[in-house]
Amino acid sequence: MTFHNYTSPIYSGEIWKKSRCLNHEDTCNELFFSYLRSKGFRQTDHFRIWKKDDQTVIVCLVDDILSCSTDYHTDLPYLFDRNTTVITDNYFTCPTVYRVINVPISFFGIYNYAPEEQSWTPDRDFAFQVNRIDPRRFQLMIDLAWRTRLDSGYINFNCEDRANPNFTPQQAFEQFWPNMGENEQKYMVRAYERVLPMMPLKNYEFEFDSIPYRVWMNLIVETYSSDTVVSLSEKIFRALVTPAPWTVYSGRYTVAYLESLGFDCMSDIINHNHYDRLKEVESKLRIFNWQSLEIVNELKSIGVESVRQRCIRAANH
Questions:
Q1: CA distances from 124 to 113, 118, 177, 204, 271 (A)
Q2: Residue 120 exposed, middle or buried by CB count within 10 Å (0-12, 13-18, 19+)
Q3: What angle do CA 183, 177, 142 make, to 5 degrees?
Q4: What percentage of the chain reaches a pLDDT higher than 70?
Q5: CA-to-CA distance for 157 and 141, rounded, in angstroms?
Q6: What's the burial of 137, exposed, middle or buried (CB within 10 Å: 0-12/13-18/19+)?
Q7: Whole-prediction pTM
Q8: In sequence order, what are the residues at sequence separation of 6 or more whose Cβ sits closer than 8 angstroms to the Cβ of residue 304?
Q9: Which of 13, 163, 246, 292 is the least buried, fewest Cβ under 10 Å from its Cβ?
């Protein structure tokens, strides 16, 4: 198996170009910003946070609301005071002291596009694609390396560290190892030592947009979410319109939320509930990887053609 080092971004392809989602997001932000300026609010050093006297307005679109605070010890319901209003597409699964105004769910139409037609013809078990490293993405990668032969999947782990852009890929990857628990380090050390020299890791030469059609399971990672917040991005909407199986590591009840919005998550052949209901402290990360790989075996028993037709119906829906 050959691994290719690379430094370019992991992805700048189809959904970005066809949906123009970044342009739509910027337009929505500017709409809110213009209104706040007209009401006498001023932008702070944080571009999402606006203030006027004792009032604060936070406009947080396509990002976890936790990114708007440097308080890492206060729980989400109490993160801001009563004089704060949050305008967001995030879905909160708990009450809050501050006021939350959700944009209409039609906001997610910014990701609407029709993928290039390709036939789902899997030749590997899974795909795992990550551009930016964070603690959970790091642990998902190590856990996968511990559970599987890496050549059983298509993997792209870029290791970009926005907080430390001068880090080498190995340094960026290495910095998260000391933060893992002692027990985790004991059973994962061989996997860690095996993948560290490979960073940044990429074990295929195909176009990114063709990868979902080549695997039995696409592992989607939405780590801007948490136990109390569901924050969605282009990654999950790309999966929803692609006729291929997927699971998503995200905030608690993400799949349930998507189904409540009317999306077809193929829950009749993919048991999302087993991981979707879990909190982080309930070994969600390990169970997500384990369950995703178990579903691969279940899908294989159903057969390629039956799964293909089911995925086509879901994507069309």
A1: 26, 16, 28, 11, 20
A2: buried
A3: 75
A4: 97
A5: 8
A6: buried
A7: 0.92
A8: 120, 121, 122
A9: 163
Tens-place pLDDT, residues 86-132: 999 999 999 999 999 999 999 999 999 999 989 999 999 999 999 88
Query: CA 220 → CA 7, 112, 217, distances in Å?
Result: 22, 18, 9
CA angle 116, 118, 122 (to 5 degrees): 140
Q: What angle do CA 272, 214, 283 make, to 5 degrees?
A: 30
Report the distance separating Cα 68 and Cα 59, nearest Å.
9
Nearest to 175 by CA among 156, 190, 196: 196
pLDDT at 29 (0 to 100):
97
The answer to whether residues 251 and 228 touch, using CB atoms and an 8 Å cutoff, is yes
Query: What pLDDT shows up at residue 226?
Result: 86
Phi-psi region of 155 (alpha: psi -120 to 50; beta: other; left: phi over 0): beta
pLDDT of 240 over the 60 cut: yes
Q: 160: helix, coil or strand?
A: strand
Look up residue 204 and give its two tokens.
Answer: 């295929």
For residue 42, give Cα distances in angstroms to 26, 35, 45, 46, 59: 18, 11, 10, 11, 13
d(CA 272, CA 266): 9
Task: Please indicate whether residue 252 or residue 225 has the higher confidence score (pLDDT).
Answer: 252
Q: Which of 31-35, 179-183, 309-313 has the lowest mean pLDDT?
A: 179-183
| Contact (Cβ atoms closer than 8 angstroms) between residue 126 and residue 296 | yes
Helix (H) or strand (E) holding 162: none
pLDDT of residue 162: 79
State residue 10's pLDDT score: 53
Cis-peptide, bond into residue 200, ω within 30° of zero:
yes
The C-alpha atoms of residue 55 and residue 83 are separated, in whole angstroms, by 5
- Tokens encoding 21: 């989602």
